[in-house]
Amino acid sequence: MNERIEAIKSLSKEIGILYVEDNEGLSKNMHTLLSKIFEKVYIAHDGEEGYKEYIKNRPKIVITDINMPKLNGFTMMKKIKAVEPKCKVIILSAYDEKKDLYTAINLSVFRYLHKPIKIPELMDALYDTLISINKEEDGDIFLTQLQNIFNYQNNIVIMMHNNKFILVNKRFNEFFGISNLDEFIDEYKNIDKLLLEHKEFLYSTPSSTWVDTAIENPGRLFHTKIENYKGEKRHLILKLREIPERDKHYILSFDDVTELNLMALFDLDAAKHDATSKDKMSILSLLRVIKENSSEVKIHNFYKGLTIVNPAVIVDINNENFTLKTVNTQLKIIRLAKLMTVTSEVFPKDVICKSIKNVDSDNQTIIIDDISFASRSAADRKYIRLEPDANHVSTLYYKNIKFPGDTYIMDISEVSVKLKINALPAGIEIGTKIKMFISLKLKGKPLSFSNIEASVYRIDENKRDYNIVLLYELNNKNINNLREYLAHRQIELIREFKSIDINSQIDNHYSI
Asked: What predicted TM-score, i.e. pTM, was given to this entire model?
């Protein structure tokens, strides 16, 4: 008993209690008992006086009888609950009528005790009441802190249920120039039209609304364009999260990245000469958005044309570089190639990493500092282009005259071939028609392609030689043979890559 009383004393600091009883003797005895435990004890002798005492002192606990003059206990409780629904009420009654129990339940009475009350029973009731009050107050503090975080986020934050906005933060109100959500609903009656159409951005289409698309892809980052109350079209990155254990409840977060001036990059025609493509700070800012949203990027590398792709997480970002953590397979090819491409749904273009500052195999991390947007995407490669076996043979003919010097295939696909040649005959230019012969090895046997007609697509002049890209259309037999070769060659390159002992060539921890 003493331990329970001490526990109640500890929990009841700054908590007042009101006792309402018309029996003078019981009232005096209870006052004596409660004053030993609570610092603030208030006494009333009928329901009317009890209500007045409550309004005056606002105690968090009320102990009351039911049958009292002027105002009975239930009527007093209704008035108190109307003022403060969270007030905890304990009823002490000599009667056990069902109608009283039902009334007490409807009024959310915390405990219903029978007179004459035993002190241990009362102490247990008071202890449980105080535990409940403390839990509610802790919950209120937690919710208040969450509300503060919610309101003072730099991002626009929205809670949505059944495709309707039900809660928004202060930043949302500022963006749309409104005071509350009701004003927004009056003005924007159809949220499907909230996101404006922009190439490669998220917006509603005849086949799907932007909300449905976001719900189908929780956690994915989407580019969006929204007009604010000033008429400015802003570039924001959207992420939708599901709320656990709450059916069809979602949190939407919009991060405004307009100042990065990236919208033009999504116009492929303008992107080629867009100065923003080399803006390192823009890329680092987008990487911060990805990191803050706990999303991943993908690293792309090629080993003799073989694509090697793995996910990576962003470990650190500063104003000069960023650090990624990925699997050892990707680290291996990075250490060989000394460059890579990074992709994300947030990037308007793939990011080319021309300089790898540091590779740490022990911690599986890479530090990258020389970055820019690529003019083409790694995903744009429609056909597999592989470096052929070393024993291949290739010969080119222009006007039935063989090209002088050596000819070496750098990579080959179903529709093109890239070659290195020692000399470029006079008259060869973009669009020139030539013929070629190619011999490859498939499973140890020769695989020949004769009299192939091709056109020159690109010519690159080097110091001592030329790179030339030819386009062609193969007949069904040749294309099937080449597909078989490319499939077999991929397997060979995978085995070759796995067999490379990179550690014998480079230290585990090194800088480039």
From this structure: 0.60
